[in-house]
Design a protein that fits this description.
The protein is of the alpha+beta class. Helices cover 31% and strands 24% of the residues. A 5-stranded antiparallel β-sheet has the order 1-2-3-6-7. The protein has a two-stranded antiparallel sheet with strand order 4-5. A hairpin with a 5-residue loop joins strand 6 and strand 7. The two termini are 23 Å apart. The structure holds nickel (II) ion (NI). The site of nickel (II) ion (NI) has 5 residues, from helix 2.
Length: 176
């Protein structure tokens, strides 16, 4: 397994619209494994292929308390949704930034597993939030896109500053 590089806002590649997966082959299984490992190592609960610069419709997530129930959703579609919930969301592509986002409370999602088998699930709560957040990535949308332009610009500046501080620290220290 390999850890993949995660793109960060405002990288324009994060706005790419992903294409459906057509081949359920060994390379897809390897990608699912690599994405799952990358998600766990980054302490995330979800990761969309877009975030690792693969523009195919798949996402991985694990919303279990013990982080031992990895799931994959390939070519996911939301076939019904109802209600409303608001969660404070973060994103591995927008590190250190959190904002409240309104999503559907209950969703029905239809997707395929890594072998190409179709399944359908009814989800609510955090699991439903996570799927909606990751499916946004697959159409090139980030949670900061729900913020006002002013707030989004503040996020951009904060991230630029964080990167500068991190680069300076790397310069000032001997990293072996
Ligand atoms: Ni995200």
């Amino acid at each position: 397994m390999a850890k993949l590089n995660i793109l960060e806002f405002p990288d324009p590649r994060l706005t790419t619209v992903a294409k459906p997966v057509e081949n359920f082959d060994e390379s897809l299984k390897k990608l699912v494994q690599d994405m799952t490992q990358t998600m766990y190592e980054a302490n995330g609960i979800g990761l969309a292929a877009t975030q690792v610069n693969v523009h195919k419709r798949l996402l991985v997530l694990d919303v279990s308390a013990d982080q031992n129930q990895p799931r994959v959703y390939i070519n996911p579609e939301i076939t019904s949704q109802a209600g409303e919930q608001t969660h404070e969301e973060g994103c591995l592509s927008v590190p250190g930034i959190y904002a409240s986002v309104k999503r559907a409370e209950n969703i029905t999602v239809k997707a395929r597993d890594a072998d190409g088998n179709v399944f359908e699930e009814q989800l609510e709560g955090l699991h439903a939030v996570c799927i909606q957040h990751e499916m946004d990535h697959l159409v090139g949308r980030l949670f900061v896109d729900y913020l006002s332009p002013l707030k989004r610009n503040m996020v951009r500046k904060k991230l630029e500053k964080q990167r500068k501080v991190a680069a300076k620290e790397a310069e000032d220290h001997l990293v072996i």
